[in-house]
Recover the amino acids of this structure.
Protein backbone atom coordinates (compact mmCIF):
# COMPACT_ATOMS: atom_id res chain seq x y z
CA UNK A 1 0.00 0.00 0.00
CA UNK A 2 1.32 3.45 -0.93
CA UNK A 3 1.07 6.25 1.60
CA UNK A 4 1.39 9.80 0.37
CA UNK A 5 2.54 12.63 2.57
CA UNK A 6 -0.33 15.04 3.21
CA UNK A 7 0.02 18.33 1.36
CA UNK A 8 1.00 21.24 3.51
CA UNK A 9 -1.67 23.89 3.80
CA UNK A 10 0.09 27.13 2.91
CA UNK A 11 -2.75 29.12 4.45
CA UNK A 12 -2.36 27.46 7.84
CA UNK A 13 1.41 27.82 7.53
CA UNK A 14 1.10 31.53 6.81
CA UNK A 15 -1.15 31.98 9.85
CA UNK A 16 1.40 30.15 11.99
CA UNK A 17 4.14 32.44 10.60
CA UNK A 18 2.06 35.52 11.48
CA UNK A 19 1.59 34.23 15.04
CA UNK A 20 5.23 33.29 15.65
CA UNK A 21 7.30 36.08 17.21
CA UNK A 22 10.42 37.09 15.26
CA UNK A 23 9.68 34.62 12.45
CA UNK A 24 10.77 35.19 8.87
CA UNK A 25 9.07 33.99 5.70
CA UNK A 26 11.39 33.12 2.83
CA UNK A 27 10.14 32.64 -0.73
CA UNK A 28 12.70 30.47 -2.55
CA UNK A 29 11.33 31.03 -6.06
CA UNK A 30 13.25 32.96 -8.71
CA UNK A 31 13.31 36.77 -8.55
CA UNK A 32 10.98 36.95 -11.58
CA UNK A 33 8.43 34.66 -9.92
CA UNK A 34 8.67 36.65 -6.70
CA UNK A 35 8.19 39.96 -8.51
CA UNK A 36 5.07 38.66 -10.23
CA UNK A 37 3.25 37.68 -7.01
CA UNK A 38 4.23 37.01 -3.42
CA UNK A 39 2.82 36.47 0.03
CA UNK A 40 2.86 39.65 2.14
CA UNK A 41 5.87 39.97 4.46
CA UNK A 42 7.88 37.36 2.58
CA UNK A 43 11.30 38.09 1.21
CA UNK A 44 13.02 36.48 -1.73
CA UNK A 45 16.00 34.22 -1.25
CA UNK A 46 16.09 31.93 -4.30
CA UNK A 47 16.98 28.31 -3.73
CA UNK A 48 20.08 28.82 -5.90
CA UNK A 49 21.34 31.50 -3.47
CA UNK A 50 20.39 29.82 -0.21
CA UNK A 51 24.03 29.70 0.91
CA UNK A 52 23.75 33.43 1.64
CA UNK A 53 21.04 32.81 4.26
CA UNK A 54 23.54 33.40 7.06
CA UNK A 55 23.94 37.02 5.89
CA UNK A 56 20.18 37.58 6.01
CA UNK A 57 19.34 35.43 9.05
CA UNK A 58 22.43 35.29 11.26
CA UNK A 59 20.62 33.80 14.28
CA UNK A 60 20.14 30.12 13.53
CA UNK A 61 17.43 29.81 16.18
CA UNK A 62 15.14 32.22 14.28
CA UNK A 63 11.85 30.59 13.24
CA UNK A 64 12.04 30.28 9.44
CA UNK A 65 9.04 29.51 7.27
CA UNK A 66 9.63 28.70 3.60
CA UNK A 67 7.35 28.79 0.56
CA UNK A 68 7.67 28.38 -3.21
CA UNK A 69 5.21 27.59 -6.02
CA UNK A 70 4.10 24.07 -5.17
CA UNK A 71 6.22 23.04 -2.17
CA UNK A 72 9.07 21.12 -3.81
CA UNK A 73 11.72 23.82 -3.66
CA UNK A 74 10.60 24.74 -0.14
CA UNK A 75 11.26 21.16 1.01
CA UNK A 76 14.74 21.27 -0.56
CA UNK A 77 15.41 24.59 1.17
CA UNK A 78 14.39 23.16 4.55
CA UNK A 79 16.90 20.33 4.16
CA UNK A 80 19.68 22.68 3.10
CA UNK A 81 19.05 25.15 5.91
CA UNK A 82 19.01 22.36 8.49
CA UNK A 83 22.37 21.15 7.16
CA UNK A 84 23.60 24.74 7.61
CA UNK A 85 22.60 24.57 11.30
CA UNK A 86 19.22 26.31 11.32
CA UNK A 87 17.16 24.79 14.11
CA UNK A 88 13.60 25.96 13.51
CA UNK A 89 12.81 25.66 9.79
CA UNK A 90 9.66 24.44 8.08
CA UNK A 91 8.05 24.45 4.69
CA UNK A 92 4.56 25.92 4.45
CA UNK A 93 4.04 24.64 0.90
CA UNK A 94 3.26 26.51 -2.27
CA UNK A 95 1.58 29.65 -3.45
CA UNK A 96 -0.50 27.69 -5.90
CA UNK A 97 -2.84 26.93 -2.96
CA UNK A 98 -2.58 30.27 -1.16
CA UNK A 99 -5.97 32.00 -0.76
CA UNK A 100 -4.91 35.28 0.82
CA UNK A 101 -3.93 38.61 -0.63
CA UNK A 102 -0.77 38.77 -2.71
CA UNK A 103 1.64 41.60 -3.37
CA UNK A 104 2.96 42.39 -6.83
CA UNK A 105 5.68 44.52 -8.32
Amino acid sequence: MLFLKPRKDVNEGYNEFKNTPDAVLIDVRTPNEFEFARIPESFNLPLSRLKSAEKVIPDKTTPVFICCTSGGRAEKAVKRLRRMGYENVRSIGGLNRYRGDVEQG
Remarks:
- Confidence is low (pLDDT under 50) at residues 1-6.
